[in-house]
Design goal:
The protein is of the alpha/beta class and about 650 residues long. Among the domains are: about 210 residues, 3-Layer(aba) Sandwich (Rossmann fold); about 190 residues, Rossmann fold (3-Layer(aba) Sandwich), CATH 3.40.50.300. The strands form 3 sheets. The chain has a 5-stranded parallel sheet, sandwiched between helices. The protein has a two-stranded parallel ribbon with strand order 1-2. A two-stranded parallel ribbon has the order 3-4. It starts with a helix and ends with a helix. The relative contact order is 0.07.
């Protein structure tokens, strides 16, 4: 599906499973670009799927006449492929190439990789009908689900591990479920990654080609992106789900996919052990769990920086700060990215990209014991987690951190990860900006008792405007069932929950560790608020904070303020001018009490009985949503529920 989408772009021709690029030079070491010889050209021509490019018979010889190396030859072949389709650019779709990223990057240092990831249990359903790939393994005759689970685990981890070593401009991850749910939004991101203009043809790739017939697959029918074609919850037996999760559950968890069962039965564990033993004996698995007894001592050169060597402070050495030093939290769409950029511009403070995994791994005990100690599962799980690569910490560096204190605590391990990020940035103090951590402030405080929290609060009506205009709302407030009926009230309750949780946790922490910052005050007087923030953090104010945007601003009116790196600008969202009166009334009927508590002026002096009744009905539905069942809710909500029965 993704190949067809990209191939529909007027500037890009994408080959289909031609497979020959790494196969023709598989005996050459990674990083070596073999000299082109007539024998190598013949070997490429004889590869079983080379003919899929559809080139004329004389093309390989013509290209070989001007090529000196294998990489030049392959580039010339794909240039001819692009010309064949009257397009300037060409690419290739070959899922198995995820196992060959180092070789391909060595041959073509500027090539870009798009890694499509899908829930492995749905892939198992597809393989069952497909009959190829892992279905051809001997293991599949006895345990077909196990064969697919181990095959999927190997390929996904290979792509994640090697891809995240590359610069973010060369590697991009896409989730299948997100691509199907909102093709336009995902394809816009992919086009931006490829430095191509977005083309509507990518979304409408199937138009004029759809031909649905009984027994014909969705692929052969050229149907539009459709959710639910494979659904492991309804189409996979409980035994198969349990076996798959026993073999690849840690990867499912780190990728954010829910698991049906946390602990497999004794029988399934025994079957899984036999299948792993077969795999180790018969298959290559270069990304298996690292051997903790033999930690790597290699370091990786990052751009022009010298290699980073991770060390522990000597016993008794003075330590002036423990990282994470500060957490920037708040309701998403409140301006936390702006605040992150401002603080990160300070010469002494580095703020990481959004991590998302810090409380999650501890809460779900991923690589962490009940006593808070790290296990061997932590490093591979982190490397597989889709957000960890944003830290630009290599697998070798992460292994070094783990080897420094193999029986250490999770808090200590994470602190060393943040210390290393700071060294990469040349800064001692390191913080985190993940807005959703406002829900986890008590846990984060338990792990790092000296960490400070900066809670950014914004008028919920402006947050609502931003949410309703956001193409990723379906990933946040849009996940709640009430969104389909009333996105305004849903956003209101969503905003209230985040804000109240932050305020309640802040009261417990006290003024030395908690600072509430108003977005409106920040945009009105950035310098004054930065000085206040620096005083709270115990660092000297630096003018670079208010100049964070200089040299980065892009003069492109089609870009959002975030992507254009615009300076602090008042009035980007103004509910007074941009929100319809009935929408304002609905929002204020839902959470007017919190607006009053925060000192925000209401527009509606009197709310109609119908609006209040609707708000109460929506509140009851919102708080009963299954997604909130295992999540913290504000104490004020608990009190309200107790008093209303």
């Amino acid at each position: 599906m993704l190949q067809r989408m990209l191939d529909s772009h007027p500037q890009l021709a994408v080959g289909y499973d031609c497979h020959f690029i790494p196969g023709a030079v598989r005996r050459s070491p990674d990083g070596v670009d073999p000299a082109l010889t007539p024998e190598l050209v013949d070997r490429v021509r004889a590869m079983p799927r080379f003919a899929r490019l559809g080139l004329a018979d004389d093309v390989p010889d013509r290209v070989a006449d001007t090529a000196r190396s294998y990489s030049e030859f392959v580039s010339g072949i794909y240039t001819e492929f692009a010309r064949l389709h009257d397009k300037p650019l060409a690419g290739e779709k070959a899922p198995g190439y995820c196992r060959h990223i180092p070789r391909l990057h060595g041959l073509f240092p500027g090539v870009r990789f798009i890694h499509l990831i899908r829930d492995g249990r749905e892939i198992a359903l597809s393989v069952r009908d497909w009959g190829k790939g892992p279905a051809k393994l001997a293991l599949a005759r006895e345990e077909p689900i196990a064969a697919t689970a181990l095959w999927w685990r190997r390929d996904v981890l290979a792509g994640l591990t090697e891809g995240r070593k590359l610069d973010p401009t060369l590697y991009h991850e896409v989730r299948y479920d997100a691509l199907v749910a909102d093709p336009r939004a995902e394809l816009q991101e992919i086009a931006a990654f490829l430095d191509l203009p977005f083309a509507e043809q990518m979304v409408t790739f199937y138009e004029g080609k759809t031909d649905v017939k009984p027994g014909r697959s969705a692929k052969a029918s050229w149907i539009a992106p459709t959710s639910g074609l494979r659904d492991w919850r309804t189409q996979m037996s409980g035994r198969d789900v349990e076996l798959f999760e026993a073999l690849a559950g840690e990867v499912l968890t780190t990728l954010g996919y829910e698991r049906a069962s946390e602990r497999p039965s004794t029988e399934i564990v025994q079957i899984a052990d036999r299948c792993r033993a077969w795999w180790r004996q018969n298959m290559s698995d270069p990304v298996d769990t690292p051997d903790r007894d033999k930690p790597s001592t290699r370091t990786r050169r990052r751009n022009d920086q010298p290699p980073v060597v991770v060390t522990m402070p000597a016993a008794g050495a003075p330590t002036t700060v423990t990282n994470p030093f500060v957490f920037i939290v708040g309701c998403p769409r409140s301006g936390t990215t702006l605040l992150k950029r401002i603080v990160d511009a300070h010469p002494s403070i580095a703020i990481t990209p959004e991590t998302h995994w810090v409380p999650r791994f501890h809460r779900k005990k991923i690589g962490v014991t009940d006593d808070g100690l790290v296990t061997n599962e932590l490093v591979p799980s982190l490397l597989a987690y889709h957000k960890f690569g944003n830290l630009r910490i290599s697998p070798d560096e992460l292994e070094q951190i783990a080897a420094l204190d193999e029986a250490g605590t999770y808090a200590g391990f994470v602190s060393r990860v943040f210390d290393l990020y700071g060294r990469h940035q040349g800064k001692q103090l390191v913080g985190d900006k993940t807005p959703g951590y406002v829900q986890d402030m008590p846990l984060l405080h338990d792990l790092w008792p000296k960490a400070k929290f900066v809670h950014l609060v914004r008028d919920g009506r402006d947050v609502c405007l931003s949410m309703l205009d956001w193409n990723r709302a379906h990933r946040t407030a849009g996940r709640v069932q009430t969104w389909a009926d009333d996105p305004v009230s849903t956003t209101a309750f969503w905003w209230e929950r985040f804000v109240r949780l932050g305020i309640e946790a802040g009261r417990v922490l006290g003024p030395d560790l908690y600072l509430e910052v108003r977005y409106e005050a920040f945009v009105e007087n950035p310098r004054q608020q930065c000085e206040r923030l620096c005083e709270f953090l115990g660092v000297a104010y630096d003018e670079s904070m208010v100049q964070f945007h200089e040299g980065r601003t892009k003069d492109d009116p089609t870009l959002s303020a975030k992507k254009a790196w615009r300076p602090v600008t008042p009035g980007m969202r103004d509910w007074r001018a941009q929100m319809q009166p009935d929408t304002v009334e609905r929002f204020e009927a839902a959470v007017g009490a919190l607006l009053d508590e925060l000192g925000y002026t209401r527009a509606c002096d009197r709310l109609g009985a119908e609006a209040l009744e609707h708000a109460e009905a929506m509140r009851q539905r919102y708080t009963a949503d299954p997604r909130l069942r295992h999540r913290r809710i504000p104490a004020q909500w608990q009190l309200r529920q107790a008093t209303t029965g």
